[in-house]
Design brief:
Order of helices and strands: EHHEHEHEHHEEHHHHH
CATH topology of the largest domain: Undecaprenyl pyrophosphate synthetase
Number of helices: 11
Shape: globular
CATH superfamily of the largest domain: Decaprenyl diphosphate synthase-like
Strand order of the largest sheet: 3-4-2-1-5-6
Number of strands: 6
Helix content: 40-55%
Structural class: alpha/beta
Radius of gyration: 23 Å
Number of domains: 2
CATH class of the largest domain: Alpha Beta
Strand content: 5-15%
Largest sheet: 6 strands, parallel
Protein backbone atom coordinates (compact mmCIF):
# COMPACT_ATOMS: atom_id res chain seq x y z
CA UNK A 1 0.00 0.00 0.00
CA UNK A 2 1.00 3.60 -0.51
CA UNK A 3 3.12 5.24 2.13
CA UNK A 4 1.97 8.82 1.52
CA UNK A 5 -1.01 10.30 -0.31
CA UNK A 6 -1.45 14.07 -0.63
CA UNK A 7 -4.68 15.68 -1.85
CA UNK A 8 -5.54 19.13 -3.15
CA UNK A 9 -9.22 19.27 -2.22
CA UNK A 10 -10.58 21.59 -4.90
CA UNK A 11 -14.03 22.41 -6.26
CA UNK A 12 -16.21 23.11 -3.22
CA UNK A 13 -17.35 26.52 -4.44
CA UNK A 14 -18.11 25.36 -7.98
CA UNK A 15 -20.02 22.37 -6.65
CA UNK A 16 -22.23 24.68 -4.60
CA UNK A 17 -22.67 27.17 -7.46
CA UNK A 18 -23.84 24.40 -9.79
CA UNK A 19 -26.63 23.75 -7.27
CA UNK A 20 -27.45 27.43 -6.78
CA UNK A 21 -26.25 27.26 -3.20
CA UNK A 22 -23.82 29.53 -1.32
CA UNK A 23 -20.14 28.62 -1.60
CA UNK A 24 -20.03 27.80 2.10
CA UNK A 25 -22.47 24.96 1.46
CA UNK A 26 -19.80 23.35 -0.69
CA UNK A 27 -17.23 23.72 2.08
CA UNK A 28 -19.52 21.95 4.55
CA UNK A 29 -20.00 19.07 2.12
CA UNK A 30 -16.26 19.04 1.44
CA UNK A 31 -15.48 18.65 5.15
CA UNK A 32 -17.75 15.60 5.28
CA UNK A 33 -15.95 14.10 2.30
CA UNK A 34 -12.59 14.72 3.98
CA UNK A 35 -13.77 12.73 7.00
CA UNK A 36 -14.75 9.79 4.77
CA UNK A 37 -11.44 9.86 2.92
CA UNK A 38 -9.52 9.92 6.21
CA UNK A 39 -11.45 6.89 7.45
CA UNK A 40 -10.84 5.07 4.17
CA UNK A 41 -7.11 5.82 4.35
CA UNK A 42 -7.03 4.21 7.79
CA UNK A 43 -8.85 1.15 6.48
CA UNK A 44 -6.49 0.84 3.52
CA UNK A 45 -3.42 1.01 5.72
CA UNK A 46 -2.06 4.27 4.30
CA UNK A 47 0.68 5.58 6.60
CA UNK A 48 0.55 9.29 5.74
CA UNK A 49 -2.25 11.49 4.39
CA UNK A 50 -1.74 15.19 3.73
CA UNK A 51 -4.75 17.40 2.96
CA UNK A 52 -4.42 20.91 1.53
CA UNK A 53 -7.03 22.55 3.74
CA UNK A 54 -6.13 26.27 3.64
CA UNK A 55 -3.45 27.86 1.47
CA UNK A 56 -1.68 31.16 1.99
CA UNK A 57 -3.56 32.38 -1.09
CA UNK A 58 -6.95 31.59 0.47
CA UNK A 59 -6.72 34.82 2.47
CA UNK A 60 -7.52 36.61 -0.80
CA UNK A 61 -11.03 35.16 -0.92
CA UNK A 62 -14.06 37.21 0.23
CA UNK A 63 -13.72 37.98 3.98
CA UNK A 64 -16.99 36.23 4.85
CA UNK A 65 -15.83 33.04 3.16
CA UNK A 66 -12.44 33.17 4.91
CA UNK A 67 -14.12 33.60 8.30
CA UNK A 68 -16.41 30.68 7.57
CA UNK A 69 -13.51 28.42 6.55
CA UNK A 70 -11.66 29.21 9.77
CA UNK A 71 -14.77 28.62 11.88
CA UNK A 72 -15.42 25.38 10.03
CA UNK A 73 -11.90 24.22 10.87
CA UNK A 74 -12.41 25.11 14.53
CA UNK A 75 -15.68 23.19 14.73
CA UNK A 76 -14.26 20.24 12.84
CA UNK A 77 -11.35 19.80 15.24
CA UNK A 78 -13.52 20.20 18.33
CA UNK A 79 -16.05 17.67 17.03
CA UNK A 80 -13.70 15.11 15.48
CA UNK A 81 -10.85 15.07 17.98
CA UNK A 82 -12.16 12.05 19.87
CA UNK A 83 -12.75 10.19 16.58
CA UNK A 84 -9.15 10.81 15.58
CA UNK A 85 -8.01 9.43 18.91
CA UNK A 86 -10.25 6.36 18.66
CA UNK A 87 -8.87 5.57 15.20
CA UNK A 88 -5.30 6.02 16.52
CA UNK A 89 -4.73 8.86 14.06
CA UNK A 90 -1.83 11.20 14.74
CA UNK A 91 -2.82 14.74 13.78
CA UNK A 92 -0.21 17.21 12.59
CA UNK A 93 -0.22 20.61 10.90
CA UNK A 94 2.13 22.12 8.34
CA UNK A 95 2.04 25.82 7.55
CA UNK A 96 1.94 29.05 9.52
CA UNK A 97 -1.20 28.22 11.49
CA UNK A 98 -0.30 30.67 14.27
CA UNK A 99 -1.74 33.43 12.09
CA UNK A 100 -5.24 32.07 12.71
CA UNK A 101 -7.33 33.44 15.61
CA UNK A 102 -6.15 32.26 19.02
CA UNK A 103 -9.23 30.08 19.61
CA UNK A 104 -8.43 28.15 16.42
CA UNK A 105 -4.75 27.84 17.32
CA UNK A 106 -5.81 26.39 20.67
CA UNK A 107 -7.98 23.76 18.97
CA UNK A 108 -5.15 22.86 16.59
CA UNK A 109 -2.56 22.52 19.32
CA UNK A 110 -4.94 20.62 21.60
CA UNK A 111 -5.62 18.11 18.82
CA UNK A 112 -1.91 17.73 18.04
CA UNK A 113 -1.10 17.21 21.72
CA UNK A 114 -3.85 14.69 22.40
CA UNK A 115 -3.01 12.55 19.38
CA UNK A 116 0.79 12.82 19.36
CA UNK A 117 1.34 9.30 20.73
CA UNK A 118 -1.06 7.60 18.34
CA UNK A 119 0.54 5.00 16.10
CA UNK A 120 -1.89 4.80 13.17
CA UNK A 121 -2.33 7.11 10.22
CA UNK A 122 -0.28 10.32 10.22
CA UNK A 123 -2.85 12.93 9.18
CA UNK A 124 -1.36 16.23 8.08
CA UNK A 125 -3.48 19.32 7.56
CA UNK A 126 -1.81 22.00 5.43
CA UNK A 127 -3.09 25.21 7.04
CA UNK A 128 -2.02 28.66 5.91
CA UNK A 129 0.49 26.69 3.90
CA UNK A 130 2.57 27.65 0.86
CA UNK A 131 5.31 25.55 -0.72
CA UNK A 132 7.37 28.57 -1.75
CA UNK A 133 7.06 30.07 1.71
CA UNK A 134 8.38 26.98 3.44
CA UNK A 135 11.33 26.86 1.04
CA UNK A 136 12.14 30.49 1.85
CA UNK A 137 12.02 29.64 5.56
CA UNK A 138 14.45 26.74 5.12
CA UNK A 139 16.81 28.88 3.03
CA UNK A 140 16.83 31.51 5.77
CA UNK A 141 17.59 28.91 8.42
CA UNK A 142 20.44 27.43 6.40
CA UNK A 143 21.79 30.92 5.69
CA UNK A 144 21.90 31.63 9.43
CA UNK A 145 23.92 28.47 9.97
CA UNK A 146 26.35 29.53 7.26
CA UNK A 147 26.76 33.03 8.75
CA UNK A 148 27.35 31.52 12.19
CA UNK A 149 30.02 29.20 10.85
CA UNK A 150 27.97 26.10 11.59
CA UNK A 151 27.53 25.10 7.96
CA UNK A 152 29.72 25.38 4.87
CA UNK A 153 27.89 26.50 1.71
CA UNK A 154 29.23 23.52 -0.23
CA UNK A 155 27.56 21.22 2.30
CA UNK A 156 24.09 22.47 1.37
CA UNK A 157 22.73 19.53 -0.61
CA UNK A 158 19.37 18.32 -1.83
CA UNK A 159 19.37 15.77 0.98
CA UNK A 160 19.97 18.50 3.57
CA UNK A 161 17.19 20.69 2.19
CA UNK A 162 14.82 17.70 2.16
CA UNK A 163 15.79 16.89 5.73
CA UNK A 164 15.18 20.46 6.90
CA UNK A 165 11.83 20.55 5.12
CA UNK A 166 10.73 17.30 6.70
CA UNK A 167 11.43 18.73 10.17
CA UNK A 168 8.79 21.42 9.64
CA UNK A 169 6.69 19.85 6.92
CA UNK A 170 6.13 16.37 5.48
CA UNK A 171 8.02 13.84 3.40
CA UNK A 172 7.56 13.05 -0.27
CA UNK A 173 4.09 11.93 -1.38
CA UNK A 174 3.92 8.80 -3.50
CA UNK A 175 0.65 9.97 -5.00
CA UNK A 176 -0.65 13.54 -5.26
CA UNK A 177 -4.33 13.90 -6.17
CA UNK A 178 -6.06 17.06 -7.32
CA UNK A 179 -9.80 17.23 -7.84
CA UNK A 180 -11.96 19.59 -9.94
CA UNK A 181 -10.05 19.28 -13.22
CA UNK A 182 -7.39 21.91 -12.52
CA UNK A 183 -3.95 20.83 -13.77
CA UNK A 184 -1.55 22.57 -11.41
CA UNK A 185 -0.05 22.17 -7.93
CA UNK A 186 -1.00 25.64 -6.65
CA UNK A 187 2.02 26.03 -4.38
CA UNK A 188 1.46 22.68 -2.66
CA UNK A 189 4.50 20.57 -1.67
CA UNK A 190 6.46 21.89 -4.63
CA UNK A 191 9.78 20.45 -3.42
CA UNK A 192 8.42 17.21 -2.01
CA UNK A 193 6.28 16.36 -5.03
CA UNK A 194 9.13 16.41 -7.56
CA UNK A 195 8.88 12.64 -8.07
CA UNK A 196 5.30 12.15 -6.92
CA UNK A 197 2.84 10.53 -9.27
CA UNK A 198 0.24 13.18 -10.14
CA UNK A 199 -3.40 12.26 -10.56
CA UNK A 200 -5.86 14.87 -11.82
CA UNK A 201 -9.58 14.17 -11.85
CA UNK A 202 -12.46 16.36 -13.08
CA UNK A 203 -14.53 15.24 -10.09
CA UNK A 204 -15.28 18.13 -7.73
CA UNK A 205 -14.19 17.51 -4.15
CA UNK A 206 -17.72 17.21 -2.64
CA UNK A 207 -18.38 14.42 -5.18
CA UNK A 208 -15.12 12.62 -4.43
CA UNK A 209 -15.80 9.34 -2.67
CA UNK A 210 -14.31 5.99 -1.73
CA UNK A 211 -14.59 4.70 -5.29
CA UNK A 212 -12.76 7.74 -6.66
CA UNK A 213 -9.91 7.27 -4.20
CA UNK A 214 -9.59 3.63 -5.20
CA UNK A 215 -9.57 4.70 -8.85
CA UNK A 216 -6.67 7.06 -8.15
CA UNK A 217 -4.76 4.35 -6.29
CA UNK A 218 -5.37 1.90 -9.12
CA UNK A 219 -3.98 4.42 -11.62
CA UNK A 220 -0.93 4.85 -9.40
CA UNK A 221 -0.33 1.11 -9.18
CA UNK A 222 -0.25 0.86 -12.97
CA UNK A 223 2.57 3.37 -13.25
CA UNK A 224 6.29 2.65 -13.11
CA UNK A 225 8.15 5.04 -10.84
CA UNK A 226 11.64 5.17 -12.32
CA UNK A 227 13.19 8.27 -10.70
CA UNK A 228 15.36 8.68 -13.82
CA UNK A 229 16.43 5.04 -13.87
CA UNK A 230 15.78 2.35 -16.45
CA UNK A 231 13.24 -0.41 -15.99
CA UNK A 232 16.10 -2.92 -15.67
CA UNK A 233 17.70 -0.94 -12.87
CA UNK A 234 14.39 -0.75 -11.04
CA UNK A 235 13.99 -4.48 -11.36
CA UNK A 236 17.39 -5.06 -9.78
CA UNK A 237 16.62 -2.66 -6.93
CA UNK A 238 13.22 -4.24 -6.31
CA UNK A 239 14.94 -7.58 -5.76
CA UNK A 240 16.39 -6.05 -2.60
CA UNK A 241 12.82 -5.29 -1.48
CA UNK A 242 13.56 -1.66 -0.74
CA UNK A 243 11.00 1.14 -0.91
CA UNK A 244 11.75 3.67 -3.60
CA UNK A 245 11.86 7.39 -2.97
CA UNK A 246 14.10 10.07 -4.39
CA UNK A 247 16.11 10.62 -1.20
CA UNK A 248 16.94 6.95 -0.60
CA UNK A 249 17.85 6.06 -4.17
CA UNK A 250 21.35 7.51 -4.34
CA UNK A 251 23.02 4.81 -2.24
CA UNK A 252 21.06 2.13 -4.03
CA UNK A 253 22.09 3.51 -7.43
CA UNK A 254 25.73 3.61 -6.37
CA UNK A 255 25.53 0.00 -5.26
CA UNK A 256 23.65 -0.88 -8.42
CA UNK A 257 26.31 0.67 -10.63
CA UNK A 258 29.02 -1.30 -8.83
CA UNK A 259 27.15 -4.53 -9.43
CA UNK A 260 26.18 -3.75 -13.01
CA UNK A 261 29.74 -3.80 -14.32
CA UNK A 262 29.80 -7.57 -14.04
CA UNK A 263 26.11 -8.24 -14.40
CA UNK A 264 24.75 -10.02 -17.43
CA UNK A 265 21.61 -7.90 -17.12
CA UNK A 266 23.61 -4.87 -18.25
CA UNK A 267 25.56 -6.65 -20.97
CA UNK A 268 23.60 -5.03 -23.78
CA UNK A 269 23.95 -1.57 -22.25
CA UNK A 270 27.72 -2.06 -21.88
CA UNK A 271 27.97 -3.13 -25.50
CA UNK A 272 26.20 0.07 -26.56
CA UNK A 273 28.57 2.22 -24.50
CA UNK A 274 31.59 0.41 -26.02
CA UNK A 275 30.31 0.56 -29.59
CA UNK A 276 33.25 1.34 -31.93
CA UNK A 277 33.06 4.99 -32.92
CA UNK A 278 33.92 4.38 -36.55
CA UNK A 279 31.28 1.71 -37.03
CA UNK A 280 28.67 3.77 -35.18
CA UNK A 281 29.23 6.80 -37.34
CA UNK A 282 29.49 4.80 -40.55
CA UNK A 283 26.11 3.19 -39.80
CA UNK A 284 24.41 6.52 -39.55
CA UNK A 285 24.60 7.30 -35.82
CA UNK A 286 24.85 10.87 -34.57
CA UNK A 287 24.52 12.50 -37.97
Amino acid sequence: MLNHIAIIMDGNGRWASERNRPRVFGHIKGARVAKKVITQAVQLGVKNLTLYAFSTENWNRPPDEVRFLIQLLQRYLARERHHLFEQKIRFNVIGEYHQFPSVVVEEIEKTVEQTKNNTGLNLNFALNYGGRQELVFVMRELSKQVLQGQLAPENITEALVSSELEKRSVGEPDLLIRTSGELRLSNFLIWQSTYSELYFTPVLWPDFNEAELLKAIEAYQKRERRFGLTSIQLEMISKNKKNLNSTSLKNQIASLNDESSSSEVFQNQTEIYNYPQGNFLSQGGLK
